[in-house]
């Protein structure tokens, strides 16, 4: 379950950064309250591991700033609702950004509810203007935990972000013209360090279409694909 939570967090939070449709927000994601997305998660053999449903629940335009809330529900392969979470997004004028606090979902932080902890990091940004060969800013989140004099850190870094190419991709939701974004995700927990390369297929007006995570040798670990979309 911990691997599933981390995988969903990295794939969907780094992929579905927002659903903002205003011209000064993001041209890659439509933002309308009630807009829904469904992603199916597959293992390396292509078997279904779970389904994640997203819904835009609130769009707020105030103080010269536009922000949005998206609700997420993950259902495991047995049809059981495993966890839910909410994500906050903000327009930057040149694109959108996601609050780094959202990188660690409630299903993870609830394990530490009886401990002292602090979350720090940098927001993830996705600009409106993408081009092949473009590099994107790194992002990270760190959770420092203290219990009975014992300190522990959980760190996730998203590095080497770049726009690799453009290509057409087909999922059960349709065929889309996409930019392919690459990044390495580093996770550091209790002395265990892991790095996972990944690719994200991003389509204008819809958002994340597909995402794949690999081992260091390039072998596929898991993937996600858009299977339903409605607005």
From TrEMBL:
InterPro entries: DUF3108-like. Pfam families: DUF3108_like. This is DUF3108 domain-containing protein. Keywords: Signal. Residues 32-226 form the DUF3108 domain. Residues 1-21 form the signal peptide. It comes from Ulvibacterium marinum. Transmembrane segments: none annotated.
């Amino acid at each position: 379950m911990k691997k599933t939570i981390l995988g969903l967090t990295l794939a969907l939070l780094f992929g579905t950064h927002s659903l903002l449709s205003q011209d000064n927000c993001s041209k890659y994601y439509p933002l309308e309250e009630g807009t829904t997305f469904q992603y199916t998660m597959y293992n390396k053999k292509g078997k279904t591991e779970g389904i994640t449903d997203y819904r835009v629940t609130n769009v707020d335009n105030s103080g010269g700033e536009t922000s949005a809330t998206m609700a997420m529900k993950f259902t495991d392969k047995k049809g059981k609702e495993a966890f839910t979470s909410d994500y906050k997004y903000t327009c930057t004028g040149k694109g959108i950004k996601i609050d780094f606090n959202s990188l660690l979902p409630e299903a993870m932080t609830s394990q530490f509810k009886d401990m002292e902890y602090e979350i720090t990091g940098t927001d993830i940004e996705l600009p409106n203007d993408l081009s092949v060969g473009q590099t994107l800013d790194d992002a990270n989140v760190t959770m420092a935990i203290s219990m009975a004099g014992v300190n522990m850190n959980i760190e996730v870094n998203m590095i080497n972000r770049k726009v690799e190419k453009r290509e057409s991709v087909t999922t059960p939701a349709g065929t889309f013209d996409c930019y392919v974004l690459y990044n390495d995700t580093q996770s550091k927990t209790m002395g265990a360090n892991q790095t996972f390369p990944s690719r994200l297929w991003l389509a204008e007006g819809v958002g994340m279409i597909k995402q794949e995570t690999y081992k260091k040798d390039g072998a596929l670990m898991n993937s996600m694909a858009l299977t339903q979309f409605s607005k």
